[in-house]
Inverse folding.
């Protein structure tokens, strides 16, 4: 049986995309996973590494190397996990799946020249382009990683068409689009109650996502509407992010129809949000990746058989309109989305939820798994 190594610098408990990636291959290949954390499995070997701790001194040194464009040295300081290569040197992997651009140098350092597939969860050269400090220190670094390593890969995946086109334009590669679709759930839509429209938003809370806009939407809607916010704080959250969540709590308190509910495991999201009517997500395009986002939550909404209410994010809007599963605002404003929601009837929502059942059969992890395994088979011929 061929051997595959999956590398990801995250905790699998909070990384649904990589968990589904592993599920796609674990029964076809002898699979080893290197990550920051996860639940042990009988289907693959889990090797947990500790995130690199950057002291103040190391941050200063790294910043200097980044500014001087000594990128190789900077990477070894920022992502000092090369010791794992020695401990796995006897495995002779046939293929490595490198998740996110920072794992590419690790993947290509393994002996035996295994094939490498790059899974780009974002467009790396413009990841946080809305933040000046990121542009100063990391934009050239991420661009260097892409220029140096993408031409060496045997294949590449990314989450949507917009990102794929940008990688193709700038790095002459042809990524396969593997969406963030959840597993298929064989369920019927929940009941739509008269004069009650239950909105749900779930996901990571960071200031750049401007989640306060969805609270503003509620101030423009009638009493039929309620909104639950299931906010997840990343483990590496900065002080600014933690303060932001507190600000959202204070803002939400002014409207008794808004409730901040505890987060659940990503494997429990669909069955938890199933009881709602509409999944809501209004994300202003403050950077390239937000402009081209096609997030987990859209597919969670679909598998939960919900209607969808979003801003005019192109690829999300394309799916919502193709399957007629919800509303798309004309602008990224609270007023614009509120206008779309205010006109909905009970029958409209029933129709959206029914249509989500059709979309769920086409947009799921099982379809993606087939495409992943076909790609790997071509590479390992």
């Amino acid at each position: 049986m061929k051997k595959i190594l999956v590398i990801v610098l995250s905790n699998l408990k909070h990384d649904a995309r990589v968990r589904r990636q592993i599920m796609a291959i674990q029964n076809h290949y002898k699979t080893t996973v290197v990550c920051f954390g996860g639940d042990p499995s009988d289907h693959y070997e889990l090797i947990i590494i500790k995130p690199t701790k950057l002291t103040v001194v190391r941050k200063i040194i790294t910043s200097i190397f980044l500014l001087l464009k000594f990128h190789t040295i900077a990477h070894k300081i920022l992502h000092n996990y090369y010791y794992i290569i020695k401990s796995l040197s006897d495995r002779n992997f046939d293929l490595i799946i490198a998740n996110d651009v920072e794992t590419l140098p690790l993947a290509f350092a393994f002996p035996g020249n295994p094939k490498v597939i790059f899974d780009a969860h974002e467009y790396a050269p413009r990841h946080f382009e809305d933040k000046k400090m990121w542009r100063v220190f990391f934009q050239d670094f991420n661009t260097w990683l892409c220029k140096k390593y993408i031409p060496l890969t045997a294949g590449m995946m990314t989450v949507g068409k917009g990102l794929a086109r940008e990688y193709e334009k700038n790095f002459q590669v042809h990524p396969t689009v593997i969406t963030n679709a959840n597993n298929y759930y064989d369920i019927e839509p929940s009941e739509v109650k008269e004069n009650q429209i239950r909105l749900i938003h779930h996901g990571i809370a960071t200031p750049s996502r401007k989640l306060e806009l969805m609270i503003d939407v509620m101030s423009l809607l009638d009493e039929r509407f309620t909104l639950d916010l299931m906010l997840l704080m990343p483990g590496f959250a900065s002080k600014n992010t933690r303060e932001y969540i507190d600000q959202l709590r204070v803002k939400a308190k002014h409207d008794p129809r808004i409730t901040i509910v505890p987060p659940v495991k990503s494997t429990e999201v669909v069955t938890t949000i199933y009881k709602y009517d509409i999944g809501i997500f209004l994300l202003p395009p403050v950077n390239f990746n937000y402009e081209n986002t096609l997030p987990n939550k859209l597919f969670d909404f679909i598998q939960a058989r919900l209607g969808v209410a979003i801003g005019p994010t192109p690829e999300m809007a394309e799916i919502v309109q193709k399957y007629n599963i919800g509303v798309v605002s004309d602008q990224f404003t609270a007023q614009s989305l509120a206008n779309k929601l205010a006109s909905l009837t009970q029958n409209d929502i029933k129709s959206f939820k029914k249509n989500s059942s059709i979309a769920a059969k086409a947009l799921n992890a099982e379809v993606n798994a087939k495409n992943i395994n076909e790609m790997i088979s071509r590479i390992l011929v």
Q: What stands out?
A: The two ends are 13 Å apart (CA to CA). The domain at 3-181+365-379 is CATH 3.40.50.2000 (Rossmann fold). The chain has a mean pLDDT of 95.
